[in-house]
Amino acid sequence: MSDASKDYFARQGDGEADPSFPPVFTSADEVPFVELGEGIRFKPVFGRNILFNYVYFEPNTVAPMHQHPEEQIGTMLVGEYEFEMNGEKRMIRPGDVYVVPPHVPHSARTYDKGCVALDIFSPPRSGFREMLDAVQQSQRDEQAEGR
């Protein structure tokens, strides 16, 4: 291992883990879907300062032009969509990556194929945690009622 590699993997800092923020193992199957709009669902996984979000688009679906204060980086996992950012359009296919700085207008559109993208936000998108909490509460209520 090179000296640079050793430095990279060296223990950093003298701090201790924060017990209010425990490590978690999970899978995409365990994360509930949150309906964002017609034909768009997502599965958000939260850290304290970052959001990892699986985004599922049905065929012929549009995510309208929007912007937000959070930084966003995404990649296509399966399928494709047309992504517009700051007036430029590109077809995004598996392995393609896009970087959306804060406040840059962007949108996405699928055609005949659906897709699964992975978006990462820092800090986490405002409102996403509340949407996930509402879905989880609804699931708990249904279980309590025996549905």
How would you describe this structure to a colleague?
The protein is of the alpha+beta class and 147 residues long. It has one domain (35-144): Jelly Rolls (Sandwich), CATH 2.60.120. Helices cover 16% and strands 39% of the residues. The protein has 2 helices and 10 strands; from the N terminus they run H-E-E-E-E-E-E-E-E-E-E-H. The strands form 2 sheets. The chain has a 6-stranded antiparallel β-sheet, with helices on one face. A 4-stranded antiparallel β-sheet has the order 4-9-6-7, with no helix packed on it. The radius of gyration is 18 Å and the shape is globular. The model has no long low-confidence stretch (mean pLDDT 91).
Q: Can you give keywords for this protein?
A:
147 residues, alpha+beta, Jelly Rolls, six-stranded antiparallel β-sheet, four-stranded antiparallel β-sheet, 10 strands, 16% helix
CATH class: Mainly Beta
Number of strands: 10
What does the overall shape look like? globular
**What is the alpha-carbon Rg in Å?**
18 Å
Give the N-to-C terminal Cα separation. 56 Å
> CATH topology, what is it called?
Jelly Rolls
Just name the CATH architecture.
Sandwich
Give the uncertain stretches in residue-range form: none
For the residues shown, what is the average pLDDT?
91
Q: Strand share of the residues?
A: 35-45%
Give the SSE map.
Elements: H1 3-9, E1 34-37, E2 40-46, E3 51-57, E4 62-66, E5 71-79, E6 81-85, E7 88-92, E8 97-100, E9 106-109, E10 115-122, H2 128-144
Antiparallel strand pairs: 1-2, 2-3, 3-10, 4-9, 5-8, 5-10, 6-7, 6-9
Summarize the entry for a quick read.
The protein has helices at 3-9, 128-144, and strands at residues 34-37, 40-46, 51-57, 62-66, 71-79, 81-85, 88-92, 97-100, 106-109, 115-122. The chain has 147 residues and is of the alpha+beta class. The protein starts with a helix and ends with a helix.
